[in-house]
Amino acid sequence: MSDLQGVRGTRDFYPDEMRLRSWLFSHFRAAAQLHGFEEYDAPVLEHEALYTRKAGEDIVGQLYGFEDKGGRRVALRPEMTPSLARMVLARAGALPLPIKWFSIPQCWRYERMQRGRGREHYQWNVDIWGSAGVEADVELLAVLCSFFDRVGLAPAEVGIRVSSRKVLQEVLDSVGVAGEQFAAVCIVVDKLGKLLPDEAAAQLGKLGLDNTAIATIQRVLGLHDLDTLAAALGDDSGAVAELRSLWALAEGYGLTEWLEFDGSIVRGLAYYTGPVFEAHDRSGELRAVCGGGRYDRLLSSFGGKDLPATGFGFGDMVILELLKDRGRLPQLAGSVQDVVFALNPELRPAAMDVAGRLRAQGRSVDLVLEEKRLKWALKHADRCGAERLLLLAPKEWERGLVKVRNLASGAESEVVPDAL
Amino acid sequence: MSDLQGVRGTRDFYPDEMRLRSWLFSHFRAAAQLHGFEEYDAPVLEHEALYTRKAGEDIVGQLYGFEDKGGRRVALRPEMTPSLARMVLARAGALPLPIKWFSIPQCWRYERMQRGRGREHYQWNVDIWGSAGVEADVELLAVLCSFFDRVGLAPAEVGIRVSSRKVLQEVLDSVGVAGEQFAAVCIVVDKLGKLLPDEAAAQLGKLGLDNTAIATIQRVLGLHDLDTLAAALGDDSGAVAELRSLWALAEGYGLTEWLEFDGSIVRGLAYYTGPVFEAHDRSGELRAVCGGGRYDRLLSSFGGKDLPATGFGFGDMVILELLKDRGRLPQLAGSVQDVVFALNPELRPAAMDVAGRLRAQGRSVDLVLEEKRLKWALKHADRCGAERLLLLAPKEWERGLVKVRNLASGAESEVVPDAL
Fold first, then answer.
1. For A198-255, what is the HEC assignment?
2. Residue ranges of chain A with pLDDT lower than 70?
3. Interior CA angle at A147 toward A146 and A153, to 5°?
4. For testing contact with chain B, the best of A13, A21, A23, A34 (most B CBs within 10 A)
5. Number of C-beta neighbours around residue B359 at 10 A
């Protein structure tokens, strides 16, 4: 009966879990919409080449790809950005810029199962295309902080570590490492936190970096304030100027409490070109809550004309772990407000009439469809988290009355249907 | 660049299309929630055996199935009911009954492309499990009519054709056709509308039915009122009693205007056992808007203990065609209410402050992130469908004022930030 289990690494959402997911998504949506972002979506299935053309990344090895019945290579999307690029390219020139769009796609990967890592997750994606300034990057940080604020997380609990790909770029330039090694170095550097310094040095050495380059990278990546970075990269550093400008704007939004400069943040995807960031719980127990950055040269990798672009992806799993750890998950009752119950089948038309009246007022009404005892109906109403039980009982209904029981207080009254 | 197109038969949802989808889904949700249904979800990917174990149906030939990297046969779900059955079985006994659940899954099929038939669609699924009476079937019809009502469709435009699998069952019993042929006959009968009577007779003949059986089936399927059906099936017909009881309850809900008995409705899936229905536009131009019915013996086909169950599926494509034809599609503006624009970069922190204040009030604010001219900002605000443009201009800001332009009336005022 293994076919009666879900596919390994996938989740079912029973109503309890669905309520939590809907609650989370509603805050994703609200934070984005308050900042003027519009929702879009793309199919979960794409041509595999959409991902493999940007070769050399972990994401390709973990593609949930397959051949369809027509012999085409297709894949369940591992991330949303390539679909977004495809959509923008399909309407190249026709979309008014800037684009401020968000989406909450389900993304897939195929890899050996690890504890706490599924094969699918939902990922809130928020992107701005067509806006070259650091203002756009700060706007994304504002969306992010507004989300944290909405779900009750404070800067003391969650921090956003910010750097720029330009920091690493300038370091590599200064030690004479050619541009083509850059992406490969970024991918190794992204994993440095998990490696011992010697292992890291060995991996960077394999990419052709000499000891001076490796030492310089390791030193700069260890920096945590902009002034020291400025001293290391020099007064005319574009990276430093960009980050200072980002901080000044973040100040204008009142966001700096959330931010810290962290030279080790480079992000794993090859396509980033400017500011990059990750949000982490301050206790450091969990994986990154979200990550993103600027990727101004993505479209040319698809053969299109580049557009400045910046965005982030924010999975649904780590944030729920974090909120759970902090005791911040809401208690979400079902949506049923009234349970309507007829004590005998003859009263069912009357019960339907009462249910219809309440629904016309916008109330969520569960009508009991089976012959049950009053005791069952009370238990059922309680389990639903309903506010009231409306009872159609022979004696009361003869007098044209409905019995209304407030389930919190236990108070009962008798009401004519018109007054419900 | 074919990899830069979406997979054939799939849709992208740009913000315009996404707004329409969200509008449709919001009415799906509201109609279900008003009737006390709770949302659930399951992964789009399932083991292929979940579908192939109920063999002999069109849906299997059209499965979007494939082998994953671990050599397992998996499929993109063609319909939601098997996933629902899997979820219920996984918690067999632990779920309080009845279950009233709904979902809006994306469903997939792989077939030769036809005009207007994609390879994916979204399908609103509404189901009641654990409730054996026709009350549950009527409750589903109430959800359906409540949805039609919400989107502005009247009984004169949309009708729900109702019958019961028991009608065909009794006809076959009466002509001595054995039970095992029943499912196969249903699948042919479901297509009768597309066949000439002679072709239909030939197909039924191939299933082993004799001429008397075929003539009886064709006659009863042509019936359109319950009294004639009662005359054909006899006074003690369970099918007639069930349908009369359904109509009486529908009367209690005031739904009978929407309903018509139609002996030809049997539905294509083998698993239905009782009342079945389809909604159609009355003009008859489009395919069925939705369809459903009772399927009390599904769980035993999965090796579980049966539970009474009834439900319907309602695709997103035909209803949107219908609403478009009837001129009932809403004009949906973007969500942006205010555009905030700083006339020069020095005023950006002030613009951020203003944007932040408005967002704290719950307003959707698009902050202009680029250096632009006022003319551009006005055009942009108009394109967004915003209500107001809030302008940070040097002279006004020196006096601590923000210029507020009402975009509908053109009226302008100057306001201190605290009064925004």
1. HHHHHHHHHCCCCHHHHHHHHHHHCCCCHHHHHHHHCCCCHHHHHHHHHHHHHHHHCC
2. 1-3, 54-59, 112-117, 179
3. 95
4. A34
5. 22
Q: B275 is written with which tokens?
A: 């009342």
Q: What are the residue boundaries of the structural domains of chain B, listed by start?
A: 15-325, 338-419
Closest chain B CA to residue A351:
B252
Q: Which of A369, A379, A382 to mutate to test the interface with B (most CBs of B within 10 A)?
A: A369
Residue of B10, B15, B367 lying closest to A101 (CB–CB)? B15
Tens-place pLDDT, residues B181-195: 777 787 788 777 778
Smallest Cα–Cα separation from B128: which of B91, B97, B90? B97
Which of B43, B68, B128 has its CB closest to that of A6? B43
Q: Are strands A120-129 and A309-315 parallel, antiparallel or unpaired?
A: antiparallel
- Chain segment B276-326, per-residue pLDDT in tens: 999 999 998 899 999 999 999 999 988 889 999 999 999 999 999 999 999
| ipTM of the complex, rounded to two decimals | 0.95
Alpha carbon distances (Å) from B94 to A310, B91, B248, B322, B399: 47, 5, 34, 41, 67
SS3 readout for A173-195 = HHCCCCHHHHHHHHHHHHCHHHC
The per-residue pLDDT for range B195-246, each reduced to its tens digit, is 888 888 898 899 888 888 888 888 888 899 999 999 999 989 999 999 999 9
Q: Hey, which bits of A22-175 come out as E strands?
A: 38-39, 45-47, 64-67, 73-76, 99-103, 106-108, 120-129, 158-164
Cβ-based contacts of B348 with chain A (< 8 Å): 135, 249, 252
DSSP bridge partners of A121: A107
Are A42 and B98 within 8 A, CB to CB? no
C-alpha distance from B258 to closest chain A C-alpha (Å): 16
Give A372: exposed, middle or buried? Use CB within 10 Å, 0-12, 13-18, 19+: middle
Whether B15-325 and B338-419 share one fold: the answer is no
CA distance B360 to chain A (A): 9
**Cβ contact A139–B369 (<8 Å):** yes
Cβ contacts of B128 on chain A, cutoff 8 Å: 369
Beta bridge partners of A67: A73
| CB atoms B101 and A39 under 8 Å | no
Beta-carbon separation of A5 and B90 below 8 A: yes
Which of A35, A38, A76 best tests the B interface by mutation, with the highest count of B CBs <10 A?
A38
Mutation target among B3, B47, B389 for the A interface, most CBs of A within 10 A:
B3
Backbone Cα Rg of chain A: 28
CB-based contact B240:B226 (threshold 8 Å) = yes
Is A18's CB within 8 Å of B4's CB? no
Size of chain A, expressed as the number of residues it contains: 420
Does B96 contact A366 at a Cβ distance shorter than 8 Å? Answer: no
Q: Judging by DSSP bridges, how do beta strands A338-342 and A309-315 pair with one another?
A: unpaired
**A122 contacts A106 by C-beta, under 8 angstroms:** yes
Select B338-419's CATH number: 3.40.50.2000, 3.40.50.150, 3.40.50.800, 3.30.750.24. 3.40.50.800
What residue of B is the nearest CA neighbor of A308? B370
Residues 6+ apart with CB under 8 A from A211: A201, A205
Q: What percent of chain B clears pLDDT 90, i.e. is strictly above it?
A: 74
CA distances from B305 to A360, B264, B302, B359, B409 (A): 38, 31, 9, 53, 66
Beta-ladder partners of B99 = B129
How many CB atoms sit inside 10 A of residue B357's CB? 17
Instruction: Name the CATH superfamily for B15-325.
Output: Bira Bifunctional Protein; Domain 2 (3.30.930.10)
Q: Report CB contact under 8 Å: A41, B12.
A: yes
